[in-house]
Amino acid sequence: MNEPELVLCDEPTGNLDQRTAEGILELLWKLKDEFASSFVLVTHDLALAARADRQLVLRDGRVADEVVNSA
Fold first, then answer.
1. Which among 20, 28, 36, 58 would be 20 to 30 A from 47, CA to CA?
2. Domain that includes residue 49, residue range
3. What is the pLDDT of residues 24-67, one digit of tens each?
4. What is the distance between the alpha carbons of residues 1 and 9, in angstroms, rounded to a whole number?
């Protein structure tokens, strides 16, 4: 990657075993910190979503809730 400002991830850990999924997440968080990139991450994994700075919950294609997590 060439220092992207925005990275889109659609189910980046879907269908992966736990060890591989953790490796992918560590890499994503490292990239976020190293390049000060923003990530839009789509997931059905609530534990993963809880690690995000901000969450938008969608229902029927509309934003149903917004959660801002404290650092």
1. 36
2. 6-68
3. 999 999 988 888 889 999 999 988 898 899 999 999 999 999 99
4. 14
CATH number at residue 27: 3.40.50.300
Domain count, the chain: 1
Over 70: is that where the pLDDT of 71 sits?
A: no
- Phi, psi for residue 70 in degrees, rounded to 5: -80, 150
* Phi, psi at 23, each rounded to 5°: -60, -40
For 12, residues 6+ apart whose C-beta sits below 8 A from its C-beta are 24, 25, 28, 41, 43
The answer to whether residue 1 sits within a structural domain is no
